[in-house]
Amino acid sequence: MLVLYGIFSDYLDGFIARKTDTISEWGKILDPFADKFTALLLFLYTVMIGYIPLWFLIVEILRDLVIVSGSLFIRKLRGSVPMSVMSGKWSVNALSAYWMSAFFLPNVLWLKQFWLGCTLALMLFSLIDYLHRFKQIKNGLKLN
After folding, report:
1. In this structure, is residue 100 part of a structural domain?
2. How many domains is the chain built from?
3. With CB atoms counted within 10 Å of each terminal CB, which end of the chain scores lower, N or C?
């Protein structure tokens, strides 16, 4: 239940910030950090109990490190942190679905495999999307 509350409150917070135009630099830094920290704890636990493979957690951590490094590079270069891209939100949704299927329905292998595949595809797509966006910003695209 706490996981569902966390997901709901995260979306509500972002929705309100966008609708009221109260997006801040600190919010653009702290919100993804909190999301990644929470996901790390949940996935670490599910790896420890054998519901999710270790290689998946390593792939997710490496992907996040690349994205965070790119954001920090853009912040240093342009003085502001870029907002997340929509494909990153899709990736997080798939990641949540994968975790929930693995944790709550560990014996429904086809469902775990389905969400594993979707999550990996969206993680790759969003990584490419982020790298493309970072390159555009580096080359002069206005930050949001």
Report:
1. yes
2. 1
3. N
Cβ–Cβ under 8 Å, residues 91 and 122: yes
SS3 53: coil
Residue 115 lies in a domain: yes
**Predicted confidence (pLDDT) per residue in 49-62, tens digit:** 999 999 999 999 99
Asked whether the whole model's pTM tops 0.85, one would answer no
Residues whose CB falls within 8 Å of the CB of residue 17, separated by 6 or more in sequence, listed in order: 23, 24, 27
d(CA 77, CA 92): 27
The answer to whether 42 and 98 have CB atoms below 8 angstroms apart is no
Range of 127's domain?
2-138
